[in-house]
Amino acid sequence: MKVYVTDEKELIMEPSVKWAGNPNITVAVKAFGLKATVQVVDLQVFALPRITLKPLVPSFPCFASIYVSLMEKPHVDFGLKLVGADLMSIPGLYRFVQELIKTQVANMYLWPKTLEVPIIDPSKAMKRPVGILTAKVLRAMKLKKKDLLGASDPYVKLKLTEDKLPSKKTTVKHKNLNPEWNEEFNLVVKDPESQALEVIVYDWEQVGKHEKMGMNVIPLKELTPDEPKDFTLELLKNMDANDARNEKSRGQIVVELTYKPFKEEDIPKGFEETQTVEKAPEGTPAGGGLLVIIVHEAQDLEGKHHTNPQVRLIFRAEEKKTKHVKKNRDPRWEEEFSFMVDEPPTNERLHVEVVSTSARSILHPKESLGYVDISLADVVSNKRINEKYHLIDSKNGRIQIELQWRTS
Predict the structure, then answer these.
(1) Is 331 exposed, middle or buried (0-12, 13-18, 19+ CB in 10 A)?
(2) Coiled-coil stretches, from where to where (predicted)?
(3) Of 26, 236, 382, 391, which one is least surrounded by beta carbons within 10 A?
(4) Cα 338 to the chain's mean position, in Å?
(5) 79 or 370, which is more confident?
């Protein structure tokens, strides 16, 4: 693969793509009023595409569009069979069909022609944060029963529109149709005139998909800066004003919102500035630093006998643990740990394991919900990484870990 670096905000790659297989493809062919079923066999494709990611932006996935062009005509090789007979044995047919396909594909995407795949709106992706929205989920009333036993296990997801970041989630209130949370979250605002806060209530399920109980949205332009405002929202099926299902009562939710715009001197000047990391405290060994681990949250955890997740961090034989979260497949910890290191851990790994314990289960008091070993080379070179990792030995489990390397 060739990779080009230019003065533009773009990344250009030219991989050599070779694919061969024996697919089971049948094609319906119509000609001169006749129909026939043709089988494609021994398909091979060799191509040299140019893939350009641009413009590069500070929002995930870090590029706004994908542009694909072919640097030369692709090589396509295949066989065609009709009722067991090899059609490619007909004199001149094979070369005619192959050249026809090459020409047709080349006419569409041969450089400088391109196939553009838009990913995100670059104008929105380049916007810088202008303030913080503090959302406090207070309580819900008169929620509807979802479980067979006549109760529900509600929790709330909060997300700003036009934002690619993961949703904020409250804890789960088991068997409660009038839950109280009083939980507070901060969300970064980029455009208070166009963004809105989505509030969605779900019914937690230990096995299977969590069912949506209702939702509503609050446009941020309804807020007065620096003034808290309470909202009592009717829960709806969706935001389609013409949907008759929204006439059904689904309960209410109460939230308190405060929008605090940044002062001019507080507005980040660029993406790099948002990635700055605190310095290590005084007394840090010369040449060493402080390895900081922030355990944010996990999703889709599932134990065989119980799901009371806790995270174990093991680094250089030293172990640290988060608190237990009872009966929760999507726990949030937001706990920070640190290890003083006398030299950069460039060639070392951090072992992260999610475990579940239960005093009620005599035969299975403890079980692993998955683990991951994280190489620390990236955090030493980049100073900070914040990623979601798929857990090994877990069906769908993921964990979000932030790592920081602080030096004096």
Answers:
(1) buried
(2) none
(3) 26
(4) 26
(5) 370
Give DSSP secondary structure letters for 55-94.
Answer: EE-SSTTSEEEEEEEESSPPEEEEEEEETTEEGGGSTTHH
Tell me, yes or no, if the pTM score tops 0.85.
no
The pLDDT of residue 285? 66
Which two tokens mark 255?
């939230």
Alpha helices for 175-257 (secondary structure H): none
CA dist 306 and 399 (Å) reads 18
pLDDT top residue among 270 and 289: 289
In Å, how far are 22, 39, 78, 151, 219 from 25, measured between CA atoms? 9, 6, 11, 50, 50
- Decide if pLDDT at 90 tops 70: no
Structurally, what CATH architecture does the domain formed by 127-261 represent?
Answer: Sandwich (2.60)
End-to-end CA distance of the chain: 39
Q: How many CB atoms lie within 10 A of CB 225?
A: 10
Mean pLDDT confidence for 204-232: 89
Neighbour tally for 293: CB within 10 Å: 21
The per-residue pLDDT for 224 is 92
For the chain, what are the domain ranges? 2-125, 127-261, 289-407
In the predicted model, what is the mean pLDDT of the chain?
83
Nearest to 62 by CA among 53, 74, 71, 49: 53
Q: Which residue has the tokens 């542009």?
A: 67
